[in-house]
# Entry
Amino acid sequence: HKKGFIFDLDGVIVDTAKYHFMAWKQLSKDLGISFSEAQNEQLKGVSRVKSLEKILAWGNKTISDEMFENLMAKKNEEYLSYIAKMDASEILPEVESVLVFLKEGNQKIALGSASKNARTILSKVKLLHYFEAIVDGTNVKNAKPDPEVFLLASEAIKINPEDCIVFEDSIAGIQAANTAGMLSIGIGNEKVLHEADFVFQNFSKMPNGFLMSLINN
Ligand code: B16
Ligand code: MG
# Structure
């Protein structure tokens, strides 16, 4: 059977959340707003625009549209300076062996991410060549939990949604996969991701034969 395997990026393939955190923290500091790791948690899977809106709301700040654009550009510049130093050592456990297994099994692989920097990051960590389609923040109009990102990915790899499997670390992403009619696999905390069909702390906790059973189902 040919299935479509759709991967989220941040939190599933690499932990770029720590770099988003550093960049948002600096921006908040410049604005005199406090910003905690718990707040950063709430920005996972959330677009750049929505993230800045949330930070400003937490700090009770209103700013001009021009200033908003400037801050977004500044945040991304700092974020990209961290990304520039990334290499394959930052790939999360067992991610590459899962990609190799799927590729060798002739399965379709796509990316479904909110990030506008997805291609840059995948190429930095040398995983770009595994992906037949990349749907990211540059293609998508409606953010997760809207299913658009995953539906576009399933179209791009020509696999029906019911034959697609999504790997996600955010609640919004799991909801998006469920709404798209796909099998949702949470990567992370099972208490947080309880709406997923399956949850594993990371790919190395996935039992032997699990991927094979998804392909054969
Ligand atoms: P960028 P994902 C998301 O990636 C991140 O989780 C989220 O924190 C970030 O704000 C968003 O991408 C946009 O990223 O600023 O690079 O366009 O988890 O959907 O892969
Ligand atoms: Mg994510």
